[in-house]
Design a protein that fits this description.
53% of the residues lie in helices and 3% in strands. Helix 1 runs antiparallel to helix 2. A two-stranded antiparallel sheet has the order 1-2. The model has no long low-confidence stretch (mean pLDDT 76). It has four helices and two strands, in the order αββααα. By secondary structure, it is an all-alpha fold.
């Protein structure tokens, strides 16, 4: 491929192919209204095309991420340095800490327990009357 396409040409080709196929499927399914044996299947084509366009988005994301490069230290101005020493190691530490927190089992939160039958609280709830039950009007 040409030099301007970046380092991940496979993802670029995949994204372009999925874009083309998805667009064709969406247009054919929505404009032509195809049918087979009297049964329309345009909706299936539209949804399949949308799925291909979504997968294309993932390929574009991977292509873009594969072309990211850090700035070499020789191009940095004098006195400029990375705020964190070893950004890769700090990213790994952050990822492992997040993974540990997410994998820890936590006890379920206690929910409100219903009143026991015959309890004073249940009797109070049953004895409460709604406003206007005796003909009172709220104005």
């Amino acid at each position: 491929m040409a030099r301007g396409c970046g380092r991940c040409a496979l993802f670029l080709l995949g994204a372009l192919a999925l874009d083309a196929a998805g667009l064709v499927l969406v247009l054919v399914g929505s404009v032509v209204q195809p049918a087979r044996a009297g049964r329309p299947y345009g909706d299936c084509l539209v949804l399949s095309g949308a799925l291909l366009l979504f997968l294309s988005l993932l390929c574009w994301l991977l292509w873009y991420a594969g072309n990211l490069r850090g700035v070499p230290a020789s191009e940095l101005p004098p006195g400029a340095h990375s705020p964190l020493p070893g950004p890769r190691s700090s990213l790994l530490r952050l990822a492992s800490k997040l993974s540990e927190r997410l994998s820890q089992r936590r006890p379920p939160l206690p929910g409100p327990s219903p009143p026991a039958p015959g309890s004073l609280e249940l009797r109070r709830l049953c004895a409460m009357e709604s406003p206007g039950a005796h003909g009172d009007r709220l104005v």
